[in-house]
Write a structure and sequence with these properties.
alpha+beta, Nucleoside Triphosphate Pyrophosphohydrolase, 3 helices
Length: 166
C-alpha cells in the first residue's frame, strides 16, 4: 500500500523530518491543585504561603512547573506532595488557564486540578511553600491570592458538590 502524501507531496516521515520546533514558541507548563474539605456546611481550602518571588508572601495553591516528559497529572501529584506533604489524592481536571500575562515571568499555561477529601489530611510546608494550611472558603480574599488563583478558585468551587448537613 502506498504511503499517504499531504498537499505538499510529503509522507508523514518527510513532514516530521522537515518540522522545526524552534518556529513555534512554547509556553511553560504548570499545574495548580485546589484541595477542598468540608466541616459541616463550611468548605475549607488547602493553601500555601509563597516562600519566594514571585508573589512572595501571597497565598496560592500548591503547584509548579512540569518536568520535561512528565505527564501533567504526575506534575500535579508531585507538586502537591512537595509543597504540602499530601499525597494519594484522586485529582480531577478543573480547567486550563492560559490568559496572556497570568504569570509575569512569561507565557505560562496551567492545568488546574482539584480534589475533595472527607478527612482533612495533616499538612506541612515544603519546597516553595513557607506555610501550608486550611482556610475557610468564605474567608479567602481574592486580593490575597497570587497569579490568577482567584479565577482558578472560582472555577473549582463551581464544581463542588452540595455540602451535606452535619
Amino acid at each position: 500500500m502506498e504511503e499517504l502524501r499531504d498537499a505538499r507531496g510529503l509522507t508523514e516521515a518527510e513532514a516530521i523530518a522537515r518540522y522545526r520546533s524552534k518556529n513555534y514558541p512554547k509556553p511553560a507548563l504548570t499545574a495548580d491543585i485546589v484541595v477542598f474539605t468540608r466541616a459541616c456546611e463550611k468548605w475549607q481550602v488547602l493553601l500555601i504561603r509563597r516562600k519566594g518571588h514571585l508573589f512572595l508572601g501571597k497565598l496560592a495553591f500548591p503547584g509548579g512547573f512540569a518536568n520535561e516528559n512528565e505527564p501533567i497529572e504526575q506534575t500535579a501529584a508531585r507538586e502537591l506532595e512537595e509543597e504540602t506533604g499530601v499525597s494519594g489524592l484522586a485529582l480531577r481536571l478543573v480547567d486550563v488557564f492560559s490568559a496572556p500575562g497570568r504569570d509575569p515571568r512569561g507565557w505560562t499555561v496551567s492545568a488546574a486540578f482539584m480534589a475533595v477529601v472527607d478527612q482533612k489530611p495533616a499538612v506541612h510546608a515544603g519546597d516553595d511553600a513557607a506555610d501550608a494550611f486550611w482556610l475557610d472558603l468564605d474567608q479567602i480574599d481574592a486580593a490575597q491570592l497570587a497569579f490568577d488563583h482567584a479565577q482558578i478558585l472560582k472555577r473549582a468551587a463551581e464544581m463542588l458538590p452540595d455540602a451535606a448537613p452535619c
